Amino acid sequence: EMLRSLVGSEMCIRDRKEAMRETYRTAYEAAKAERQSLIDSLGESGYKTVRDLLANNVKALYSTATKLYE
Fold this sequence. Notes:
Layout: H1 2-68
């Protein structure tokens, strides 16, 4: 009985890992498609400009948050 329970637990862990992999794979593919859509509509240089602006905003937000919690 104990062995059967352990095997069942291992199967649940394995299945959960596979479900997580599939979720990440789906999210990655969606992000890749969204990136390509932005490049198609903005052009490569426009996309890079937006990407750089967002990166700078994230850096600024992180810096502000870090100072708030020091």
